[in-house]
Design a protein that fits this description.
- The complex is a heterodimer of chains A (268) and B (787).
- By secondary structure, chain A is of the alpha+beta class.
- Chain A folds into three domains: 45 residues, Uridine Diphospho-n-acetylenolpyruvylglucosamine Reductase, domain 2; 108 residues, Uridine Diphospho-n-acetylenolpyruvylglucosamine Reductase, domain 3; 96 residues, Enolase-like, domain 1, CATH 3.30.390.50.
- Chain A is 33% helix and 25% strand.
- The termini of chain A are far apart.
- In chain A, 49% of the residues are buried.
- Chain B contains 19 helices and 28 strands.
- In chain B, helix 9 packs parallel to helix 18 and helix 17 packs across helix 18.
- Classes of the chains: A alpha+beta (268), B alpha+beta (787).
Chain lengths: 268, 787
């Protein structure tokens, strides 16, 4: 780790001001990726602005038909939220499956989606659920937010403040873990709201989270795992390949995990 | 058993300090004026060092000194050694390339040591290391084991132009060939024993300290054998004579073999302490551990087994190629030879065996002993080929094993070993009962109903432990003797300190050794303390590895206790005014035969030191005795492990559904600790079979250099183990102990793969059997079934 300046604002207003003012800064929103990267000297921001002292960024509430999750809400808080367990249990379960207890107690939803690790869980969940990312400047739909591997629609100085998730979907996330890191090697989020079905795949795509249109079409006709029999899984081209899983294996697992997510989502 | 003696489940005395953060590890040691070392490591697997420019770095803030291979050469610091000479088939010696502690002219693996920066803080040392300019001329990297010696390949060490370290053999080739000619059936297999990275919880560390007033060095280091470290650093590397070099291995958090060896880092720290005139500390980070700890296993093997018309094994031949990495680590040469081939008879009566081992250099980290060291590799060969042979013959694998078991002892195998005692039928029978093998067919049907494949696999292993009779290992090329020493110091108040040359780095010696002493002397276990890990305190020692601390280390304590008891009886005879031959000692009391006169141990201890009851002419005061114990044979722990797996063919995920271990460790001192050793060993073996594997790319970059990519077994990868025992006491040592530390890691990989191949219905799967590999293999199973 190289030396850096450390700022810890206590209001969003202070945070906004620091982000604009402090040169070469990085926002610290749990630090589950940033800190290890800095320790390995692979990242060397001149300043770190820690958002953990901003209370208005934390919390989970229902507003009308939406569930609103503060950006600095930890995975553990999402996983254990009575509100979410009732209204959207699949999302609580997704958060409960991120990393290990240490990671879940430090890592936050805002930090995770801002990083947009291609093997992270939230991008799949939020894309499937049609969530909206709210920042200090604007609202961005999940479909527009995740723009590629480790990249998002966020501009310089933009701070995620909350994530708005529509309630009322049948939703589940099924993850196949990398045997070493336990990140998603393939993670499939399936959401059905009314007639509309969205299938979002994380972990597998070489450019981050993506939707699987053929599965969505089949599941829209019939929301049952069997509906996917015979549906060709996404082409290996465009999928990640590494020492743990070839693109072909990932493609196969997308099919298996989608079926499992559908079964869970339909409560069978 | 109640109480605290041999056989009691005494809770570990050392755990209080470990779980309350009061342990004293090398990184906890901080010396006055201490500096921090950071090693600049090679980013290339193979390259000529054209130049090392430290000028700019030397002027950086906090830098105390920068040392390179040129300084090592100037100071005539000796190279790291390999302490076991292996001869080629033609009798010529193995080809050992020079192994300087800091690279001279060439780097040979990613992580090789190019320079050390010593600075006031670690961050400053790292900053300066970034400013060192090294010009490399990269050479082609030799990474692939199979092709490492092919014609025209790049030479890694000039002494070994074709990268071959040695070409060794054991056994009777002619007799083996003759048996194969007469064979009714021959089974052939090709095996990969995957390369592993040890991953002790505590990474390696060292603090070197030099006292100019006394011209003496102290090295604090993470060692399994501090006296051996002192010997090597003194006699071979030339840091200082032994009486001027103290090596302290304080609390050490796991070793698994990787802390036996004498590495570059501790050598440099202790040497540099004098150069810079200040203590020098180095602590590996996890990536350094992945890159530079000696790795384990890494064999390619072709094996053949011959059988007669009755299904009796008549011969076996084995051809193995072993990767020793870029340099020969301390005991690396012995692992694929004398720790491997002599175990190829397994538990079976095999009249003829012939084994050939070719060891090679590659541009990868050095490979040396890792939990089991040679014996897991041998067991994997034997237990895989036996299983495959049974399947080919259409025999039940248990029946086939039983038919070929050695049944009378002692048994001389064709590959050096003379097994002293055992009852292989008994452990197989008990394991099958405990496991409910009878119920397997139903469980398999139930799995099939749920769309899962279920399989069951045996591993009837044997290992050779307690290494070993010094004369025997000397005749096989070892550079050291493998005895152990102990000193029992009785204090005037009757408490006891035991100084042992064994070293505990997780094994629980402070408990088990105290159990022995407390039981023998009839004193409370709290009154016994075990001292180890300091060459200034402990008289001598060979350390802990090869499951030797019980069989060899405790035997030395027994010998010392025998002397203490004999001396104490003499003292008691004066106290009780009786003839020495009439003194009995039992339950902590000395008594006179046929009388009610007695005196307790503590009172005798006091009398030994106050010396009021005898004159100096009659008896020497004091009660302190030492002993060296040299084993008369290896010990031969054996047993049967049964693995049962369930495979999800949709994903390839293998679940270990059930595991039974029935081991014969001889006499057990503390069943709780032994079970813990078995659990840990099985976990490591399952790790090897399902998860772990070091992967280098074609350029020699280690792809599995962190936990992101190197898969360690986690608790939820493992079932609840059923651990049981049979007992045939070891006849060659006074306590009847065989050793238990490595058994789990030795037995389990073969059991796992036998279970997986049973489930798959074919043999085509290598370790680690990752979900991807098993999924592919399962596709082949279905294709086969559809034919």
């Amino acid at each position: 780790m190289y030396a850096f300046d450390f700022h810890r604002p206590s209001t969003l207003r202070q945070a906004n001001s620091l982000v604009g003012k402090v040169a070469d800064n990085k926002l610290l929103a749990g630090g589950q990726t940033l800190l290890p990267t800095m320790k390995q000297r692979l990242a060397s921001p001149a300043a770190v602005i820690d958002l953990s002292g901003v209370p208005e960024l934390v919390g989970i509430e229902q507003k009308g038909r939406n569930l609103v999750i503060g950006a600095m809400t930890t995975h553990a808080e999402v996983a254990n939220s009575a509100l979410l367990k009732g209204a959207l249990p699949g999302l609580a379960a997704l958060a409960g499956g991120i990393g290990d207890p240490h990671v879940r107690n430090r890592g936050t939803i805002g930090g995770s989606i801002a990083n947009n690790d291609p093997a992270a869980d939230y991008p799949g969940g939020l894309l499937a659920l049609g969530a909206t990312v709210v920042t200090n400047q604007r609202k961005i739909s999940a479909a527009d937010f995740f723009t590629g591997m480790f990249s998002t629609a966020l501009d310089e100085g933009e701070i995620i403040t909350k994530v708005v998730v529509p309630a009322g979907a049948k939703f589940a996330y099924a993850k196949f873990r990398n045997p070493a890191s336990r990140y998603a090697m393939v993670g499939v989020a399936v959401a059905k709201k009314g007639a509309k079905v969205v299938v979002a795949v994380t972990g597998a795509g070489s450019d981050g989270v993506f939707r699987w249109a053929d599965a969505e079409a089949a599941l829209t006709k019939r929301f049952n795992a069997k509906a996917l029999d015979g549906v060709k899984t996404p082409a290996a081209k465009g999928l990640n390949s590494d020492i743990h899983a070839s693109a072909e294996y990932r493609s196969h697992l997308i099919g298996v995990m989608t079926k499992r997510a559908v079964t869970t989502a339909s409560g069978k | 058993m109640a109480g605290t003696g041999i056989g009691a489940r005494v809770e570990r005395k050392e755990d209080f300090r470990f779980i309350t953060g009061k342990g004293n590890y090398t990184d906890d040691i901080n010396r006055e004026g201490q500096t921090h070392a950071y090693f600049l490591r090679s980013p290339h697997a193979h390259a000529v060092i054209k130049s090392v420019d430290t000028k700019k770095a030397s002027g950086m803030p906090g830098v105390v000194g920068i040392l390179t291979g040129a300084d090592i050469e100037k100071d005539k610091v000796g190279g790291l050694i390999c302490g076991w000479m292996i001869n080629n088939k033609d009798g010529s010696p193995m080809r050992a390339g020079a192994h300087p502690a800091l690279a001279q002219g060439k780097v040979r693996y990613v992580g090789d040591h190019v320079a050390v920066v010593i600075a006031e803080t670690l961050a400053e040392a790292k900053d300066a290391a970034e400013a060192i300019k090294v010009t490399y001329a990269p050479l082609p990297a030799v990474v692939d084991l199979a092709s490492a010696t092919k014609k025209g390949i790049t030479t890694i060490h000039d002494v070994a132009p074709d990268n071959q370290v040695y070409d060794w053999h054991l056994g009777d080739k002619a007799a083996t060939d003759a048996a194969f000619k007469k064979a009714k059936h021959v089974t052939k297999i090709d095996l990969v024993n995957n390369r592993l990275i040890p991953n002790a919880m505590e990474p390696r560390a060292a603090v070197g300290d030099y006292n100019s007033g006394e011209d003496a060095f102290t090295l604090y280091t993470t060692s399994q054998n501090p006296h051996v470290a002192r010997l090597v650093l003194s006699a071979f590397i030339g840091i200082a004579p032994e009486h001027k070099l103290r090596v302290i291995a304080p609390d050490v958090g796991g070793g698994f073999g990787s802390k036996i060896f004498i590495y570059a880092e501790e050598t440099v720290c202790v040497w540099a302490a004098k150069k810079v005139g200040r203590p020098v500390k180095w602590v590996a980070d996890r990536t350094e551990a992945f890159l530079s700890d000696a790795h384990g296993r890494d064999h390619l093997t072709h094996a053949e087994m011959a059988m007669d018309e009755n299904g009796k094994i008549t011969a076996m031949r084995v051809k193995t190629r072993a990767n020793l990495g870029a340099y020969l680590s301390t005991f690396s040469s012995s692992v694929p030879t004398y720790l491997y081939a002599p175990l190829l008879s397994g538990q079976y009566n095999i009249p003829a065996i012939y084994a050939e081992v070719e060891a090679v250099y590659t541009n990868t980290a050095p490979v040396d002993a890792y939990r089991g060291a040679g014996r897991p590799e041998a067991t994997f060969v034997v237990e895989r080929i036996v299983e495959v042979a049974a399947r080919e013959l259409g025999l039940d694998p248990a029946t086939f094993r039983r038919k070929n078991f050695i049944k009378s002892f002692p048994h001389q195998t064709p590959v050096i070993m003379c097994y002293d005692v055992g009852d292989y039928d008994a452990s197989l029978k008990k394991a099958m009962e405990v496991h409910d093998v009878k119920g397997f067919a139903k469980r398999k049907r139930d799995s099939a109903k749920a769309g899962k494949l279920r399989g069951l696999g045996y591993s009837a292993y044997i290992e050779a432990c307690g290494i070993a009779p010094s004369a025997a290992v000397g005749s096989l090329g070892a550079g050291v003797g493998l005895w152990e020493s102990a000193e029992v110091r009785v204090n005037p108040v009757g408490t006891v300190e035991v100084l042992t040359g064994s070293h505990s780095h997780g094994q629980g010696h402070e408990t088990t050794f105290a159990q022995l002493v407390a039981g023998r002397l009839g004193i409370p276990i709290e009154n016994v303390s075990i001292v180890h890990g300091d060459t200034d305190k402990v008289q001598m020692g060979m350390g802990t590895y090869g499951s030797r601390s019980g069989a060899v280390g405790m035997s030395a304590i027994v010998k010392a206790l025998d002397k203490v008891e004999a001396k104490a009886k003499k003292v008691a005879s004066f106290v009780l005014e009786a003839s020495e031959k009439d003194i009995d000692f039992k339950d902590g009391k000395f008594s006179v035969k046929g009388t009610d006169k007695s005196v307790d141990f503590a009172s005798v201890a006091l009398q030994a030191y106050v010396a009021h009851k005898f004159t100096g002419a009659e008896l020497e005061p004091g009660l302190k005795e030492g002993a060296f114990y040299d084993p008369t044979n290896f010990t031969f722990p054996s047993g049967v492990h049964i693995a049962e797996v369930e495979i999800d063919p949709d994903t390839g995920v293998t679940t270990v559904a059930k595991w039974t271990a029935v081991d014969d460790f001889g006499v057990i001192i503390n069943p709780m600790i032994v079970e813990g050793q078995v659990h840990g060993g099985i976990a490591q073996g399952i790790g090897q079979a399902l998860l772990e594997g070091a992967v280098y790319n074609d350029n020699g970059q280690l792809l599995t250099a962190s936990y992101m990519d190197y898969a360690m077994p986690r608790a939820d990868d493992l079932p609840s183990f059923r651990v049981d025992h049979t007992t045939t006491p070891c006849p060659s040592n006074p306590l009847g102990i065989k050793g238990c530390g490595e058994a789990g890691a030795i037995a389990s990989p073969a059991a796992m793969i036998n279970a997986i191949t049973d489930a798959l219905g074919h043999e085509n799967i290598a370790m680690p059997a990752t979900p991807q590999a098993v999924w592919k293999a399962a596709q082949a199973s279905f294709a086969k079934a559809a034919e």
